[in-house]
């Protein structure tokens, strides 16, 4: 699968642009590579956060279901 890239024009605060310039020169990479790596990290962090929220919601639902089965089991087999 061939990856394609698109172009985008953005406006940044001059201090951010200056930091990108310094970083890209010190690492000998393009500004685009710096910005893309930051956005990939943001994207990964966002996906992780969404997964954590999803697992928490599943845990709450699983706990609710387990509690329902526990209470229904007690109705069938009462403790003596």
Summarize the structure in short.
75% of the residues lie in helices and 0% in strands. The model has no long low-confidence stretch (mean pLDDT 87).
Radius of gyration (CA) equals: 25 Å
Helical content stands at over 70%
Mean pLDDT: 87
Total helices: the number is: 2
H and E order: HH
- Helix-strand category: mainly alpha
Biggest sheet details: none
Task: Describe the global form.
Answer: elongated
How much of the polypeptide forms β-strand, as a percent range?
A: under 5%
Termini distance? 65 Å
Question: Could you characterize what this model shows?
Answer:
It is a single chain. The chain is mostly helical and 80 residues long. The radius of gyration is 25 Å and the shape is elongated. Helix 1 (14-27) packs across helix 2. The mean pLDDT is 87. The chain has a domain at 20-74. The N and C termini lie far apart (65 Å). It is built from 2 helices and no strands.
Show the helix and strand layout.
Elements: H1 14-27, H2 31-76
Helix pairs in contact: 1-2
Describe this protein with a few key phrases:
0% strand, 2 helices, 75% helix, 80 residues, elongated, mainly alpha, single chain
């Amino acid at each position: 699968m061939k990856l394609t890239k698109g172009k985008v024009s953005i406006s940044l605060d001059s201090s951010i642009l200056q930091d990108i310039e310094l970083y890209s020169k010190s690492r000998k990479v393009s500004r685009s590579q710096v910005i893309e790596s930051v956005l990939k990290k943001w994207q990964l962090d966002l996906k992780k956060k969404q997964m954590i929220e999803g697992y928490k919601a599943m845990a709450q639902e699983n706990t609710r279901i387990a509690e329902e089965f526990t209470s229904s089991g007690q109705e069938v087999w009462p403790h003596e």
